[in-house]
Structures are given as structure tokens and as C-alpha cells.
Amino acid sequence: MPNQVAGAGHRAAPVHTDPEDVSVLTALSAVSDPVRLTLIRELAGSADWTRSCGSFDVPVGKAALSHHFSVLRGAGLVEQRDEGPKRVNRLRREEFEKRFPGLLALLLRDEGAVDAE
Amino acid sequence: MPNQVAGAGHRAAPVHTDPEDVSVLTALSAVSDPVRLTLIRELAGSADWTRSCGSFDVPVGKAALSHHFSVLRGAGLVEQRDEGPKRVNRLRREEFEKRFPGLLALLLRDEGAVDAE
């Protein structure tokens, strides 16, 4: 019996949105959430394809996490692929920067300042 | 009897937040709303202090509009003052730009592209 609960893979391949097709409102909505901001920041500090969905330190359940990744894909921020039982991620740094210059830098520049200010 | 319903003034003076005290998450949440994005864009196209709260073309009631302006003040984006019966506005362009470089430009650059893309 496949380990569907513990593993994150063996699902339909994730659907992606090209950053060029993302509106500014969609991009802003995607990044104006504390959990997604944490995901983006952790991804930015990791090499491409090294982080599985389960490796992030965020206080949400599996279904909510899946939703957050879906929003990030829909905003052209994150690309995912399945590697065996794991779904691994990369931040679409260059493509997103080309579409929304400076936005990613703002998100990463203020690291740790969300609660402190 | 004062015309409290039709007029927008004669309330307690609005409370403002300095952009320097605004977190990136607060700023992003403030601008990731279609009504507030419209308010920001209309303000950006108007001279300071020329736009009263009732002069914006947004599909919301008075209470909701008041809330949206409160959010914009809280993000350091808008300054308001009462002039007779009217509450007039200005976009805090320079202060906000200093705190979040490039963000306002992103919001204004994509004008009209929210639904089209």
C-alpha cells in the first residue's frame, strides 16, 4: 500500500503559472501572508530543488501548506517537481524579478523585521 | 443639526503611522486589495490634498471606504486632514518610497493591468 499520507509525492504534477501572466494584485496577495513570506524566505536561503514541502518550519497543517504552495505557484513565485516520494521546490527568482522588479528584494531585505517593527 | 451623514468631516482627527514603523507584511497587506489599489492609483494621479474621501470611484459603502483609508493610513501610505466638512488626502509618496523602495512604482506601473493579465 503506497505511503500516501506520510509522503508528499505520487500526486498529479503541479500546475504552474508563468510570472509574465501574473497580475500585480495576484503577486501582492501571494506575498502578503506570513506563512507564505516564511516559505519564500526559507526558499531564498536554500539551493534550488533542495527543499521538500515538508521541510519548512511553518505552523500549518498539510492541507493548508498545500494551499499556500498552490498560491505561490499561481503567482509565479515557486516551481515544484516530484522526486520520488518528495515534492521539491525552487524559488523562481529571475523570472519573478523580471516581472516585478524589486519586489523579491523587499521581501528578503526585511527578513526578521515583520514582528519587530 | 450638523450634516454628519452627507459630510465626511467633524470626526476625530485621523491617526497616522509613520512609514518607518510599518512592517513589510503590513505594507503588502495594505496594497494587495483591489479597492485600496484603486485608491492609491487615483491618489497618485491627483495633486496632494485635492481629493476628498468621497471623490473616489470605488464600489464600496461609506463604512467600508473608511476602513480602507484606515488601513492605508496604518501602512504609512496615506495622510489625511479635515478641511471643513471634507477629509482630504495625499499619498505619502516620498516617505513610503524611502521605506519600501520600488513598491509604489510597481503598483502604479501596472495600472490597468490587474484584470487584463
UniProtKB/TrEMBL annotation, chains A, B:
SMART domains: HTH_ARSR (SM00418). GO terms for molecular function: DNA binding. InterPro entries: ArsR-like_HTH, HTH_ArsR_DNA-bd_dom, WH-like_DNA-bd_sf, WH_DNA-bd_sf. Residues 16-111 form the HTH arsR-type domain. Keywords: DNA-binding. Coiled coil: none annotated. Gene3D superfamilies: Winged helix-like DNA-binding domain superfamily/Winged helix DNA-binding domain. This is DNA-binding transcriptional ArsR family regulator. It comes from Streptomyces rishiriensis.
